[in-house]
Hints:
Oligomer: single chain
CATH superfamily: HIT-like
Number of helices: 8
Distance between the termini: 59 Å
Amino acid sequence: MSTDSEEASxxxxxxxDGGPATVFEHLWTPYRMAYIRGEGKPTGAHDCPFCLIxxxxxxEGLVVARGEHVxxxxxxxxxxxxxxxxxxxxxxxxxxDLTAAEVAELGEFTQTAMRVVRAVSGAHGFxxxxxxxxVAGAGIAxxxxxxxxxxxxxxxxxxxxxxxxxxxxxxxxxTRELLAQHxxxxxxxxxx
Length: 192
């Protein structure tokens, strides 16, 4: 049941003879237009955050773990607390561009990320995935990266939808430290 204020905030969509406009309601998010237009996106390896982060110390770059071919880093704009990205060091855009060794380590890091986040925060599940190409939603399409987003029952609420606000229970630096402490030492490669 909707309230008067909810009705007032809805925008009427003309009928398209029983098609999608009659089935779906619309949520307008004009702030995403800059993202769609690609404003402020990196233009190459020289300004690619995934190429620059490995040059930073772990705390500054929010790096949780470093491998031989791949590193784990917290997402600076997380969908949920503990949102990690598993990123190859090489600046390649597509999963098919990875070597067998990179694919293997990416898989190992994904499994380890899931185990560590479960151990530290009791995540109930995960969204694991990568968006290949800007048309598929990749924010940084030129440098492959895989998301590991922890999920908990009831973690979706009105705050991000209505309040345009994410509620995170811990600052990123503290989350990074906690995850790094629990990452198996055998998989860490010393910084260059």
